[in-house]
Design goal:
The chain has 323 residues and is an alpha/beta fold. The chain has two domains: 276 residues, Phosphoenolpyruvate-binding domains (TIM Barrel); 38 residues, no CATH class. It is 44% helix and 12% strand. The protein is built from 15 helices and eight strands. An eight-stranded parallel beta barrel has the order 1-2-3-4-5-6-7-8, surrounded by seven helices. Helix 5 packs across helix 7 and helix 8 crosses helix 9. It is elongated and about 85 Å long. Bound molecules: 5,10-methenyl-6,7,8-trihydrofolic acid and 3-methyl-2-oxobutanoic acid. The site of 3-methyl-2-oxobutanoic acid has 10 residues, from loops.
Length: 323
Amino acid sequence: MTRNMLSALSLRPALSPVARRWMSAWPSDKKETGIASERSARRKKVTIQHLHQMRQSGTPIAMVTAYDFPTGRACDSYGADITLVGDSLAQVCLGYDSTTKLTLDEMLHHCRAVARGSKLPFLVADMPFGSYHTSPEEAVRNAVRLVQEGGVEAVKLEGGEEIAPTVRRLTSIGIPVMAHVGLLPQRHTALSGYRVQGKDAASARSVYNSALALEDAGAFSVVLEAIPHILGTHITNKLSVPTIGIGAGPNTSGQVLVWDDLMARWHGHKAKFVRRFADVQTEEMKGVSAYVNAVKTRAFPEVVNESYEMDETEWRQFLEGVV
Ligand SMILES: Nc1nc(=O)c2c([nH]1)NC[C@@H]1CN(c3ccc(C(=O)N[C@@H](CCC(=O)O)C(=O)O)cc3)CN21
Ligand SMILES: CC(C)C(=O)C(=O)O
């Protein structure tokens, strides 16, 4: 059975029109119109092979983070090639001040939700801080949980040559690994903040050597975060696996942004590499304040369209029985 057939069975069972009417929260395919949904109708399941073909043909790879069912579903419907359950989850979704606070169980909970919505994009999850550092065995155990319980297809690990044995171990047992070099947010304390990496020759060489070592260890792709664009271009040209940049310039094989950053939904610091493609924060502000105002002024709800009627005789009978 193909994955599409499976997803058709598990996500969208054929409901009778009557059953459908009562499930107001059921995701409706019919509501999706326009280019994006036509595109998704024609799209196939993205695999590692497709990602390598995209790199070969120079077709940019679009990766987006997702943290729950609706954001996962949006990645699926609107053309993302890779959905990443990033550990930025800690900050943008759970309100922690650092990704280092995120536990594996919290990550698993969100992976399951994203996996229910994101079917066609290749699905990757960050291994949380501490879940792959104690030993390759521990990393295998935790990565297996992300695959089995979380429903993801690959894991992403931050680090350089020091994690190459772990990457080798995971890939050897069939768990695809996306490496992540350059700025490593899980090490912000040791690095004294979130700083652009590879700006001097020695640091650039270190980032470059990390990327080479992790490709050699079997990584199917490498994320390059916050490095000079010329270094991003150089690493992309030297590797034979796709690079995904975030603040690594325009010449990487693909780009990734955090959902809340590209939607302008994140209230915290805006890194230089962030471009806001929509303004959800303003829409949320408008929506919530209009709702609160309508409640306070009794403009919401209306009797006619937003309330339920009761048969008059039933109502009289009800009153007769009431003391
Ligand atoms: N909302 C959000 N977006 C992200 O991209 C992101 C998270 N959260 N949380 C986890 C990590 C942390 N990341 C960050 C956080 C801050 C900078 C940052 O402030 N960079 C400075 C660089 C300053 C310099 O070295 O000159 C910048 O201004 O771009 C970069 C990446 C990336 N990830
Ligand atoms: C920004 C991306 C690459 C990430 O690692 C995350 O979302 O945590």
